[in-house]
Amino acid sequence: FFKFLEGGEVTITASYPAGKIGTTQENLLAAARGENEEWDVLYREFAQVADEEGFTEIATAFRMISVVEAEHERRYLKLLSRLTDGDFFKRDGKIWWQCRNCGYIVEAEQAPLMCPACKHPQAYFEPKKENY
């Protein structure tokens, strides 16, 4: 949002929840709740204030950002669901898994417990993406 500023000084008084480190499931749920508040409350209010103050371009940007925050919430909830259901590292059929450390790939229903190439644990595996 800095590109909307026209110079000068800005005073910001704000607070932000510090949270706490919990289990992965607790952290994902807290993150999803935070994203929900951002898209459903905060950015909506920011856009309303920007509209009221005559900053329609900024209000539009806030509304577009809220769409992104809703996607973040959806992603965290899907990850939480995969962890809860026990299918984070396994699928119903064979897929390609890729080690995020070394790039090793393997076709299997479940990610290896350890990468045979670099010896990193299963947590380094993710479904391989071909987005190039």
UniProtKB/TrEMBL annotation:
GO function terms (MF aspect): iron ion binding; magnesium-protoporphyrin IX monomethyl ester (oxidative) cyclase activity
Keyword Translocase in record: no
Keyword Iron: yes
InterPro entries, per database record: Ferritin-like, Ferritin-like_SF, Rr_diiron-bd_dom, Rubredoxin-like_dom, Rubrerythrin, RUBY_RBDX
Enzyme Commission (EC) number: 1.14.13.81
The protein's enzyme class: oxidoreductase
Keywords on record: Iron, Metal-binding, Oxidoreductase
SUPFAM superfamilies: Ferritin-like (SSF47240), Rubredoxin-like (SSF57802)
Domain Rubredoxin-like: 94-128
Name of the protein described by the UniProt record: Rubrerythrin
Organism for this UniProt entry: human gut metagenome
